[in-house]
Specification:
This protein is an all-alpha fold and 164 residues long. The chain contains 7 helices and no strands.
Length: 164
Amino acid sequence: MIYLIIGASAVAVAVFVERVIHFHRAQINSMEFLNGVRNVLKRDNVVEALSICDATPGPVARLVKLAIINRERGRDGVRESLEEAGLVEIPPLEDKLNLLATIAQIAPLMGLLGTVLGFIRIFGRLQAEGTFANMQALSGGIWEGLICTATRLAVAIPCYAGYN
């Protein structure tokens, strides 16, 4: 079980790193961007405001561009178009996060299974050796169970934190 837990941990690290890079690329100084667009729009230069939005990466710029394009529809029309666009923008941001959440949820279960398998090993030896079982024969199963318990927690805790 420990190899499965380590494999799941490697997948979780890869997903976490990919998401951090994706979010970093989409990150902009939104206040500076909005102030720049607002200043351009005060001069009634819609074309320049749209070009600023096109030159700026990320979902904020795309939503502002959509608001500028739909400005003639009034406040309710802009709100409606932004809500629809938000439904399109959110899934790419949440991409692969379900995998991270799944690993965070199943890692403790895999560790628990490893712990149970370790204790099955202990009781198998107890049955085989009877009343003459020594501690050395039993300690391997206990050790195996404790390693699985510690590993499952070491994987699940960072996965939960990374997901959130």
